[in-house]
Amino acid sequence: MSAAVGSQRAVLAGLLLTTTIASAGSATAAPVVVPTAQASRACVAARGRLPNWSVKAPAGCTTEWRRLGELGERSLFVGRYAWPNPTRRAAPRPVATLVLYEVAAGSASATALWARRLDGIDEYFDGVSLARVNHRPVVRVSTCLEGTGGCADTLYLWKPGRLVEADGNLRADVERQLPAGYELRAAPAADADLARLHGGAWLKDDPQCCPSAALECRLQLDGDRLGARDCTVAPAPAPAPGR
Question: Which of its termini does the chain have fewer beta carbons within 10 Å around, N or C?
Answer without folding.
Answer: C
